Amino acid sequence: MRDKIPKGEILKWLTKIKKELKDVKANNEKGKEYLKNINAYVNDCEHFLEKEDLFLSWEACLWAWAYLTISKDLKLLE
After folding, report:
1. Is 5 helix (H, G, I), strand (E, B) or coil?
2. Given pLDDT bands bounded at 50, 70 and 90, which one contains residue 4?
3. Contact call for residues 24 and 68 (beta carbons, < 8 A)
């Protein structure tokens, strides 16, 4: 199951979130905390990608996007 995730799909979404994060700003201390976690998940995604663990890389990428979306909805980030 772990080898069913296309590497190209991970790279596509990893590139998108890294581009998106360049313009993101925290609105408060909680936002800074969430942004730190988002960046940690992006780093995890890259780490697992290097290790060829596509499943964990994809999972980390999904968590990064989830945190980013939720943080924006809660107005912690803009």
Report:
1. coil
2. confident
3. yes
Give the orientation angle of helix 54-73 with respect to helix 29-50, to 10 degrees.
Answer: 160
- Output b/e per residue, 64-74; b: 16+ Cβ within 10 A: bbebbeebbee
CA nearest neighbour of 41 among 62, 64, 58, 68: 64
pTM of the model: 0.92
Q: Where do the structural domains in the chain lie, given as residue ranges?
A: 7-73
Query: What pLDDT is stored for residue 5 in this prediction?
Result: 87
Query: Taking the domain 7-73, which CATH number applies?
Result: 1.20.1270.90
Q: How far apart are CA 13 and CA 30, in angstroms?
A: 25
Summarised one tens digit per residue, pLDDT across range 10-22 is: 999 999 999 999 9
State yes or no: pLDDT of 1 exceeds 70: no
